[in-house]
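BUG: 3D viewer hangs when loading the predicted structure for this chain

Environment: internal workstation, default settings.
Expected: structure renders.
Actual: progress bar stalls at 90%.

Input used:
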Amino acid sequence: MKKLLLMLMTVAVFLGTAAFAQDASSGAAAGGDSAKTEKAAGKEKAPPLKTLKGTVKAEGDKVQFVADKGGKAWDVVNPEALKGHEGHHVVVKAHVYADKNQIHVMDVKMAKAKGEKAEKSDSMSH
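Structure tokens produced before the viewer hung:
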């Protein structure tokens, strides 16, 4: 009886150790690359914020930001951030995903006309 109990405890410890080792080797805890782990989990690191000046264009549900510099049109990942600014000239702080031709707007202000100060009209934080 003692031998059977000892054997069962040994198997339980062995299986527990193997499960822990497998879990630790798949994450950053075992010295793995946390960027790969985040990307695999769909949490890729956002690029730095950039300040862009341009015009908001909307066609149905699709919202685009057309930059003054170069006239490049960017698809807006979070169009709710620019709601009410359609057709306006604005300054946005956004994460720019050049490879996807997209921006994620974090802050928007009406662009100032000559001799005026910019008026903060909406702010989002993450």
